[in-house]
Amino acid sequence: MDATTVLKSQLKEAHDWLDATIQGVGPQQLHWNPAGKANNIAACCAHVVTSEDFVVNGMLKGAPPPCSHDLGGQDWPE
After folding, report:
1. How far apart are CA 70 and CA 56, in angstroms?
2. Residue 61 carries which DSSP code?
3. Buried-exposed string 33-53: b where 16+ CB fall within 10 A, e elsewhere
4. Is the pLDDT score of 55 beyond 90?
5. How far is 36 from 66, CA to CA, in rounded Å?
6. Torsion over CA of 21, 47, 4 and 71, rounded to 10 degrees?
7. Which of 5, 13, 42, 62 could form a cystine bridge with 30, CB 3.0-4.6 A?
8. pLDDT of 12 over the 90 cut
9. Rounded distance, CA 9 to CA 50, Å?
10. Where are the alpha helices (DSSP H) in 2-64?
């Protein structure tokens, strides 16, 4: 099994795990802000997706990730 196949399999497993974890969680629960410095569930999910995007597209493919347009109009570093 090559590295690409392994990575795809691991990412699918991670997606399935995340989907199962938040299954049945409603919008109010996703956006509920806990006391202190903890993030809400929606922010944690956004962090997971954005981090994956940066790793796969930015580091592995060497291309700007699709979410890079949210960087305040800055160019993707060379």
Report:
1. 17
2. S
3. eeeeeeeebbeebeeeeeeee
4. no
5. 32
6. 160
7. 42
8. yes
9. 19
10. 3-22, 27-30, 41-53
What is d(CA 60, CA 56) in angstroms, rounded to the nearest whole number? 5
Give me the residue label for tokens 């993030």: 39
Q: How far is CA 37 from CA 3, 33, 34, 40, 64, in A?
A: 37, 9, 8, 10, 30
- Chain segment 29-47, per-residue pLDDT in tens: 999 999 999 999 999 999 9
Answer yes or no: pTM beyond 0.85: no
Burial of 18 (0-12, 13-18, 19+ CB in 10 A): middle
Give the tokens for residue 65: 């990730």
